[in-house]
Design goal:
Number of strands of chain A: 20
Strand order of the largest sheet of chain B: 2-1-5-3-4
Shape of chain A: globular
CATH topology of one domain in chain A: Methane Monooxygenase Hydroxylase, Chain G, domain 1
Largest sheet of chain A: 7 strands, mixed
Distance between the termini of chain B: 67 Å
Structural class of chain A: alpha/beta
Radius of gyration of chain B: 21 Å
Distance between the termini of chain A: 70 Å
CATH class of one domain in chain A: Mainly Alpha
Strand content of chain A: 15-25%
Largest interface: A-B, 62 and 62 residues
CATH topology of the largest domain in chain B: Fumarate Reductase Iron-sulfur Protein, Chain B, domain 2
Oligomer: heterodimer
CATH architecture of the largest domain in chain B: Orthogonal Bundle
Number of domains of chain B: 2
Order of helices and strands of chain B: EEHEEEEEHHHHHHHHH
Largest sheet of chain B: 5 strands, mixed
Number of helices of chain A: 16
Radius of gyration of chain A: 23 Å
Structural class of chain B: alpha+beta
Strand content of chain B: 5-15%
Chain lengths: 578, 242
């Protein structure tokens, strides 16, 4: 085998969305050699799509807000299946992380006295989300990427996909990837690897996620010996676009409701009055998504199979100033002027609450040297994530994880060895789709997987359907062994997809297995056959044993008494009552 | 059916190939390209991410005009719809061009004259103080303006001129109320701002409708001209040596 292009790094960061960039910055500050690998061009990661804002108790807009309130809201939102240690750190550190962004050049919307303005969002008791109109993610990713690029000890590897992690004994030792452009393989020797790969939306048909969301991080972690937690909790964002067909699933930010948008069914009823009369449109996402789904399913949906989301009662200039992206998105794609006409929306797969099990202080998994940050990690969100808590998650735990990874790398003094035979094996397997004679198209397998997950592992779930899904996933795993691609190895999307299929199928299996095992309904997991909540709170953990997926449950850790005391009073729209 | 002519080939060599795709209501060019990819030509190279005109990945030349494939509706176009890569840049394969110059340029700007807050920065900023900067922050780095700019496209002065997108970035840095860096000589010497002769082609193609020429480039050119070409200031500099 010819020699593979090789880089030696202290910390390899896989992914350049908010979490990866934030981890990269913090690792770079420690003076170690950092490499950031991303599948797309830098700055195009999915964080760029985040719209509504970053949840942080800055207490600018509502001085009564503080970390205790944010902690409480997050725990309630997650139905207390969150690991409280993450929720605590998150609530306490989010404000300083937002201020850091400002100091690095971010321009947030302002209060009249010149501070960072905050807006209301579902499940948050105070107006809490720092934002930039409805393009907060763009501002965040630019600020972070520019900060990262200011460090001399950082290399960025664009359009490079990681397909395998190596270990030397128990410890992580590096990763193998390929350049999308040339198809050539590249080896990263690294003392620490930080997974910041985002989610797995592309296993669903209707999703707000981009093609990059193939779940590679979850799968790489499993295959390296780490554990995943609570994969059954898939967040369906209540409001995705339904029309035109080519754009189905694209996100309609929760900021629309945060700014006062109302939901109506085709009969003109403000139906949230029936589902959550107290919080209405600003109830938590799990509840609003199920309400919309139910309205549509029971025949009160719109022409294109959605419900109406309306801001036409707000002054047109407010809509254009606070929701400029939505105004443009609907005008350009659907021919709808949202200052005059209602939007049509329906739930869209959006986020994965579950993910790699990591330690709250370090974000390190069970595998020494393997870290996970952002969506691919788990612990903070429990059974349902609050809007705005994802961007703050990326900042807080990206920062902690990046620092811990650099510190860990410094402790590795003896050179790590990567087995040559293992490299050869991975390369050979990766090239197999080119050699298949009468194989199956990766697009075809992907299409079937998306249909399966959409139809059988959706918002409402049932044993017989979940089992059907598992059967189908096993069938697709067999098919994927015979996946075939044509053309050469240069920038070949069919080949890229063929390699992603393995990851997507592992994720689909993990989700479905957890969904079957959880015979109760809580947060984002709604079982028609088991509608009651669990008697005792527990989390699922899954791992691979000789290639087979195993699952066990552990009781959710109880917060200490002083924190429990903060959880007495449920969240409400307190900013309206003050 | 919708007829497409897609450029297929590698490293500049290649030809247009014709495809037919069923029409769907509200269809955009990217829908057509992805349909062709998933049904007929698995290896058809194309960059895309968000599919909602927010990330700026899917820039291409559509019927000769630099556009985002994800927001160009097919019903507005004459057929066959000709889709080719951004021509100002070196070609890689099919619809993908080598835009790695963009990252190198952004990084150079950051290293040379990146954002540095004033020592006394209060971080108290009013909406009206940041209004200018906000317009420049809308830039999604899609490279359409760079592709259409004749300084880069025809004259290939990539090593002398940072191009409209990065002048927009510079304009954000320049208008940040808390910033402390003097970029005037950098704009003249390193950014090559004087290469721009204000033909406004960049402004016309910007999907974010940023007034690139009027709001970003002209005010900075004026400041450069003020310092370097104002006869009174030139005399003053000669005398004081500043």
């Amino acid at each position: 085998m010819e020699t593979i292009e090789t880089y030696e790094l202290d910390v390899l960061i896989v992914g350049a969305g908010g979490a990866g960039l934030r981890a990269g910055i913090e690792a770079a500050k420690e003076g170690v050699k950092v490499g950031v690998v991303c599948k797309s061009l830098l700055g195009k990661a999915h964080t760029v799509m985040a719209e509504g804002g970053i949840a942080a108790a800055l207490s600018n807009t509502d001085p009564q807000d503080n970390w205790k309130e944010h902690f409480r809201d997050t725990m309630y939102g997650g139905k207390f299946l969150n690991d409280w240690r993450f929720a605590l750190k998150h609530a306490q550190l989010a404000p300083e992380c937002v201020k850091e962004l400002e100091e690095w050049g971010a321009l947030f919307d302002r209060t009249p006295d010149g501070k960072i303005l905050q807006r209301a969002f579902g499940g948050h008791s105070w107006r809490r989300l720092a934002h930039v109109g409805d393009r907060t993610g763009l501002e965040m990713i630019r600020t972070l990427q520019d900060k990262l690029l200011s460090f001399d000890n950082v290399d960025v590897f664009q359009e490079c996909s990681i397909i395998h992690l190596f270990k030397d004994g128990e410890k992580i030792a590096g990763a193998l990837g390929y350049w999308r452009e040339t198809g050539r393989f590249v080896l990263f020797k690294a003392k620490a690897v930080v997974l910041a790969t985002g989610g797995l939306g592309k296993i669903y048909k209707i999703t707000s996620n981009s093609w990059e969301y193939t779940g590679s991080g979850y799968a790489l972690a499993l295959l390296a010996g780490a554990e995943l937690r609570d994969m059954e909790f898939i967040q369906f964002h209540p409001t995705g676009m339904v029309w035109p067909p080519g754009i189905q699933g694209i996100l309609v930010t929760e900021a629309v409701r945060g700014e006062g948008g109302r939901l109506y069914n085709a009969k003109g009823e403000r139906f949230m009055q029936r589902y959550d009369p107290e919080r209405l449109e600003l109830s938590t996402r799990d509840l609003v998504a199920r309400a919309i789904y139910t309205e549509i399913k029971e025949g009160r949906g719109t022409e294109h199979g959605g419900v109406y989301l309306d801001v036409s009662h707000l002054p047109a200039e407010v809509v254009k100033k606070k929701l400029p992206g939505m105004y443009k998105q609907f005008l350009e794609f659907a021919g709808v002027d949202i200052t005059k006409q209602p939007m049509e929306v329906a739930p869209t797969m959006h986020y994965t609450m579950g993910g790699v099990r990591v330690e709250p202080d370090t974000q390190m998994s069970k595998v020494p040297g393997l870290f996970a940050v952002g969506e691919v990690a788990s612990g903070l969100h429990g059974a349902n994530r609050l809007g705005g808590n994802s961007l703050s998650d990326l900042l807080v735990f990206g920062k902690l994880g990046g620092k811990a990874a650099a510190e860990y790398a410094k402790t590795i003094k003896t050179p790590l060895v990567i087995d040559k035979g293992e490299i050869e094996k991975v390369v050979k397997e990766a090239l197999k789709p080119f050699e298949e004679k009468d194989g199956i198209s990766p697009y075809e397998i992907h299409e079937e997987l998306k249909e399966t997950m959409q139809n059988f592992v959706g918002i409402f779930r049932e044993e017989k359907e979940l089992k059907k899904a598992l059967e189908k996933i096993n069938e697709l795993k067999e098919k994927a062994k015979r996946v075939k691609v044509t053309g050469n190895i240069m920038f070949n999307p069919a080949w890229h997809l063929a390699l992603d299929l393995k990851f997507m199928l592992l994720c689909a299996e993990a989700i479905t297995l957890c969904a079957i095992e959880r015979k109760n309904s809580i947060g984002a997991h709604a079982r028609i056959d088991y509608p009651n909540p669990p008697e005792e709170k527990y989390n699922h953990f899954i791992w691979l044993e000789d290639g087979e997926m195993k699952i066990r449950r552990e009781p959710t850790p109880e917060p200490p008494d002083e924190l429990k005391a903060l959880l007495k009073e449920p969240p409400s729209r307190k900013w309206e009552k003050k | 059916m919708v007829k497409f002519l897609i450029f297929r080939g590698e490293r500049g060599e290649g030809a247009f190939k014709e495809y037919e795709v069923p029409y769907q209501e509200g269809m955009v060019v990217l829908d057509g390209v992805l349909y062709i990819q998933s049904r007929f030509e698995g290896d058809l190279s194309v960059r895309w991410n968000c599919k909602a005109a927010k990330c700026g990945s899917c820039a291409a030349e559509i019927n000769g005009k630099p556009s985002l494939m994800c927001k160009t509706r097919v019903e507005h176009l004459s057929q066959p719809i000709k889709v080719e890569p951004l021509r100002a840049y070196p070609h890689i394969k099919d619809l993908v061009a080598d835009t790695s110059w963009n990252l190198r340029t952004r990084r150079k700007i950051i290293k040379d004259v990146g954002f540095k807050p004033r020592k006394d920065a209060s971080w108290i900023m009013k909406d009206e103080d940041i209004e200018k900067g906000r317009e420049f922050r809308k830039c999604i780095e899609c490279a359409l303006c760079l592709d259409v700019c004749h300084v880069l496209r025809e004259h290939q002065l990539f090593d002398k001129f940072v191009g409209p997108a990065y002048l927009v970035f510079s304009a954000y840095l320049e208008t940040h109320p808390m910033d402390s860096v003097d970029r005037i000589s950098w704009l003249k010497e390193e950014a090559g701002i004087m290469y721009c002769n204000i033909t406004k082609c960049c402004t016309e193609v910007c999907p974010e409708e940023i007034h690139i020429t009027d709001n970003a480039i002209i005010p900075m050119k004026e400041r450069v001209a003020d310092r370097y070409f104002d006869p009174i200031k030139m005399l003053f500099r000669k005398i004081t040596g500043k």
